[in-house]
Amino acid sequence: MGFKCGIVGLPNVGKSTLFNALTNSSKAQTANFPFCTIDPNVGIVPVIDNRLDKLAEISKSKKKIYTTISFVDIAGLVRGASKGEGLGNKFLSHIREVDAIVHMIRCFDSEDIQNVNKDINPIRDLEIIETEMRLADLESIQKRLDKKNKKNLSEESLKILEMALNIINNEQNIEVLINEFSSKQLSLTGLLTVKPKLYVCNIDEESAGKGNTYTKTFIDKFGEKNTIIISADIENQINQLDEKERKNYLSIINQDDNGLNILIKKGYNLLQLETFFTSGPEESRAWTVNKNSKAPAAAGKIHSDFEKGFIRAETVSYSEFIENNGWLNSKTNGKMRLEGKDYIVKDGDVLNFRFNT
Fold first, then answer.
1. Buried (b) or exposed (e) across 218-254, using 16+ Cβ within 10 A?
2. 14, 110, 155, 326 — which has fewest CB within 10 A?
3. How far, in Å, CA of 215 to CA of 201, rounded?
4. DSSP annotation of 91
């Protein structure tokens, strides 16, 4: 499994349309009224990687298995969600279960599609969602810091929650907390505001490839690093095309890649993930690990017994595996290395683990 992204935003900003485009399905119901989505839709999407295609070809693998990403289409939130408005408490609980949040933001005008606010204002809309998440966290923290619950907290959790409480009460930037603790430490708290975030600006077809005044205003404030400009409608159209037609269409609208690939690349960077491979005649497969993972942890992604009984990892870089046409020549030409428990796995490594049973 790669990672799990929750798509959130106000009602009628295009979340379900984007979900359908990303998962290439019509699984998520789309309609022009608020709260069309109540229960979250979940779609698991293979992360297409051309490197795996080449490995499978060289190894003459019977099976080829991509790593995956899960998208969760979470119902539209509204002002007052933290107090239960618009089924808000239920929707907020769904966000706690994801690794990263994809903020879907409306950046288009339309007389045909209802808007819960009087005008289009991407920055205000994002602030509404983030305010509700902060209020939900505030309530959760206060409950956990209550005398009868406080004694069950670890010293580390107590420190994080007390610091988070102070930040929220004083309207400080949550980045202070994110910079102080590791992502693993923060994820254990279940706080919504510390989850990594990507911003998806949903534009109209006419703005494709260039953006518009709404996206410019948004990027001026939040930057380009974690912002993606997508037309959910165009993404749906692209999915109906074959590969050649898709490339031509993207070229016409001045877009280098489709929205799914852009989102995955930014998501991997945001969560500091990378890919290693296993490859042989039976199967070639991609696996997702955290950056700077040591070899035993990577082995554990395949099976917990591999991590427990880890001896060493036969290791070849992707480029050398391709240049030497597989395992045999890589070994013969001295390109295969035997790495131990302290080896830090690199993106693209082709690995074969040796372990005790």
1. bbeebeeebbbbbbbbbbbebbeeeeeeeeeebeeee
2. 155
3. 7
4. H
How would you label 296-314 residue by residue, b for 16+ Cβ within 10 Å and e otherwise?
bbbbbbbeeebbeebebbb
Tokens of 220: 């001026």
* 298, 344 contact by CB (below 8 A): no
Closest CA to 19 of 3, 32, 8: 8
Please name the amino acid found at residue 283: E
Tell me how far the alpha carbon of residue 110 is from its chain's centroid.
Answer: 29
pLDDT in tens, 177-198: 888 898 888 888 889 899 999 9
Q: Element (H or E) spanning 158, and its range?
A: helix 155-169
Q: Assign 270 to helix, strand or coil.
A: helix
Residue with tokens 């799990």: 4
68, 2 contact by CB (below 8 A): yes
Long-range pairs, 49-53, Cβ under 8 A, ≥24: 49/275, 49/286, 51/275, 51/277, 51/286, 51/318, 51/348, 52/277, 52/284, 52/285, 52/286
